[in-house]
Write a structure and sequence with these properties.
Oligomer: homodimer
Largest interface: A-B, 58 and 58 residues
Helix content of chain A: 40-55%
Number of helices of chain A: 15
Strand order of the largest sheet of chain A: 2-1-3-4-5-11
Distance between the termini of chain A: 79 Å
Number of strands of chain A: 12
Strand content of chain A: 15-25%
Shape of chain A: elongated
Amino acid sequence: MTDGAKSEDVKAGKSPARTMRRNPTMADLARAAGVSKITVSRALADSPLVAETTRRRIQQLARDRGYRLNVSARNFRRQRSNLIATIVEMTPSAGRTMLDPYPLALLGAIAQELAGVGYGVLLTTRQGMTESFIHAADGVILLGQGAHQSSVKLCDEMGVPLVVWGAGTDGDAHVIVGSDNVHGGASAAEHLLSTGRRRPVFVGNADHAEMAQRLRGFRDVLARRGIGPTCVTPNGWTMDAGAGAIDSLLADKTAFDAVFACSDLLAMGAIRALREHGVRVPEDVSVIGYDDTPLGAAFTPPLTSVRQNWLDGGALLARKILALVDGRVAASEKMPTSLIVRQT
Amino acid sequence: MTDGAKSEDVKAGKSPARTMRRNPTMADLARAAGVSKITVSRALADSPLVAETTRRRIQQLARDRGYRLNVSARNFRRQRSNLIATIVEMTPSAGRTMLDPYPLALLGAIAQELAGVGYGVLLTTRQGMTESFIHAADGVILLGQGAHQSSVKLCDEMGVPLVVWGAGTDGDAHVIVGSDNVHGGASAAEHLLSTGRRRPVFVGNADHAEMAQRLRGFRDVLARRGIGPTCVTPNGWTMDAGAGAIDSLLADKTAFDAVFACSDLLAMGAIRALREHGVRVPEDVSVIGYDDTPLGAAFTPPLTSVRQNWLDGGALLARKILALVDGRVAASEKMPTSLIVRQT
DNA sequence: CGGTGTCAAGTTACCGATAACATATGCCCG
DNA sequence: CGGGCATATGTTATCGGTAACTTGACACCG
């Protein structure tokens, strides 16, 4: 006799009140179908271990009765949560992140990629990134500007697979996916040189790993022509910060004919400031932004910008973490960037 | 004899290889402490049922051995996942949402509020919103522009608690939290009237519930002065759409001295278009935006805009869904808006 | 015709925590 | 001094799946 039938007896004796109907369990289906629980389990998982006809019969039965898998039970038994904790910086104070579309774009892509294989995204803010959250997940994706060392260490200690979005200083222990900032900077420099500019300014914060790489690419290309760019560190990532950077350059009477800004917002602020000072863009000064945001494209004049493909990046992050979770290996990877030339 | 000791015997007989060390379980701690599993469970939960001294001893032991609660096991036993599925529209095609800081701000606030009580956010895109995801959560928060009927229905059918961010058409079955769009529109109208404007234009899509409410508030206030606003429906939510709306008004030779746009982006586009046509802002035409984005504040000229507090909104959404999950009641609620007057 | 495969299903034994109920101990009070 | 009660701990029985191993039936083969 099957275990299904056995538990039926027990149950009938125990709870004669059959009025309230919970969700059916596999045991319920098993009883109804006259098979054992495990056969139901296999049938619903489309296992070839169950005869085609039985399988279909059970699947139909499950549909009829509105059966819903108890996810908690499965996760528990299999000792995995099918969740990937994704840590995002979301404090309003961060300024930049609240504005950028990039975390959302990445998140969307990650969520979609993971959903395709039955995984979910456990969203976590950096403040809320307690051990218990990390432990509840099979792996962690860290979306930060650069890797926050504390988070990285925490994951390592706990033995939880980790993938980071951002800039990798070569030789990092963990897997890093990010766009090729060096190439992005280099392409900006090449474009400026090809349009005859010789006195470029870099607007960005070299303390920030991603921006430091952009500067490196930018500088290296220029160096081959014997040019050294002027560097300004803006006070934040807002339009105002970009404008402020330009203001200080003009106040110093620095001569320049091109600006490479590390974000579209900075670039737009720079253009605003230039124009306020009567400097024409792009006639007098050429400007290149970064991120190729819709906003920059809608700006007057439409912004030339370095594009990074966040959707692909998110999908890649997802695939890498899944690989690690499955015990496979994964390598760091750089996403290509492309320069979108518009009118600045 | 305690169950702890019993299982020790069994285990020792079964797996003599004691080299590999898994995470300890409560049973392990119980054995080590010479108490029963349940006492460990209680002690770690700080239950007053356990004597102070015992409790501390067990907690210390847990710390020493690096004990980690098996979340899956607890969730399974308690029949709740401690997860709230949060559904966000994240497709790039949506245009607006990819740009707005609002989903992230809401998400951040929700995540933080929920984390405080041990709940997590299961991030879901609208495409990925399969039954299984919803079922895996104790409740659902829907962040959409307006409620997507299909999603709402799905939750209802599945008997999963649901809270929606957006505009409630009075008499909705589900709980809705949103900012007071009617009031937002009204305050814009009042401000325009108080600065002497008499021929206002509304730029927004009245098919969209939130915007329809803004229009209602706007229109009602104006009606008291016998004024009826001109309405234009922009083609999207981008700057270009805002500019296009203005272009069509000017082409029609419509006379107006004020614009109330349903987003800062639209407002900025409108200003761009006005200036391109030689219309001065705010001298000739006054402009009010919506959302009070950092971007609008940094615009030239800084945008006057209706602010909604997303952080509070997110926290409120979180508290409402928790109430429903706990079987308490929750009512729809409107968040106040405030007009931030700047230079337009 | 026994041996050996192959398929289709079944048995057993958990995964780790916790609710509900049960027990032991000591103390107070009429 | 026995009943009642508070306190501290223990027992039992799951929650609902699924991995690992077992069984039964039949076919094919030398």
